[in-house]
Design a protein that fits this description.
Chain lengths: 113, 114
Amino acid sequence: NAGVTQTPKFQVLKTGQSMTLQCAQDMNHNSMYWYRQDPGMGLRLIYYSASEGTTDKGEVPNGYNVSRLNKREFSLRLESAAPSQTSVYFCASSEANGRGGYTFGSGTRLTVV
Amino acid sequence: GENVEQHPSTLSVQEGDSAVIKCTYSDSASNYFPWYKQELGKRPQLIIDIRSNVGEKKDQRIAVTLNKTAKHFSLHITETQPEDSAVYFCAASTPNQAGTALIFGKGTTLSVSS
């Protein structure tokens, strides 16, 4: 039982490059989330998916797109990476309406140069 | 949307002392308030949570209190130990037609010295 798995763990991109961060959960959770964590800023919500087939913007959605591929997988795409997107990205999942708390993945450390 | 303020940003205590972290939220519709602990280089982990129909919840050395009227909630850690040193985040969950998602405070770095 792996919980929430994120890939890759580390990535360096050049400004303007694109990439997709992958997230998969094996807990049969309905809801999935993407957060970014920057020093002194806490965890800021980028996008979330309350259930399969739905996605919604969070606090800082600009520059990102998401896809809820199926119940297990929720990907985050950077179409044209910018240095301001250098951050640690966490994926999380939960039962519907956050019951039982969130389970976080181990994070992806992204550097845009 | 929801806004969560957390204080203090840093907190240093001696081993055995108590630590209190306070959060306020803006959306009166918020109904779920978890606390997460994040050790250096690791993922956040849920340590305790409270729902809006409860005023206080305790789990061993950790307790959370909620004042819905004032829209604030607090984390209390008693008999602190060095392994309590970490960053603590409060969060509030606001339901809307798309579902719910947690909005986090900016975190409190707790240092417990022995």
